[in-house]
Input
Amino acid sequence: MAARNLTPKLSRREVLGLGAIGAAGVAVALTGCSNAVSASAGGSGMLPKGLEIGPTSDVPVGAGRNFEVEGTKLVVTQPVADEFHAFSAICTHEGCVVGCREKIIKCDCHEATFNPVNGDPMSGPANSPLPSYAIEVRDGVIYTA
Output
């Protein structure tokens, strides 16, 4: 007995429709990724210049503090007195919020750690640095630069 082909015959329109559905699925998946990427990559000039972040007194020496400016989550560190750095507070691994703990920037979701001076990954699953933001300090207040 000869084997029968059980593959259904599809019209050209059906094939194109399935391709469009597949492409839409890929687009939705990539959009989800791109939202995480754009949120995590929101540094380096994505905020207008001159926005107030917060007072320097809110950022302890040897530590840091989280802020939110126009919907953008930031972590501002002060590794040594009067030296401030700002980074995206979105982990580059899977988009969790990071914060400054034990003198390092740390993601509590998967234990990734980042350098508080340059945002480079130090340990854990993250392998990309936190995007940085240019900042300036005037009269005890931190602003976007």
Residues 3-8, 18-45 have pLDDT under 50 and may be disordered. The domain at 52-144 is CATH 2.102.10.10 (Rieske Iron-sulfur Protein).
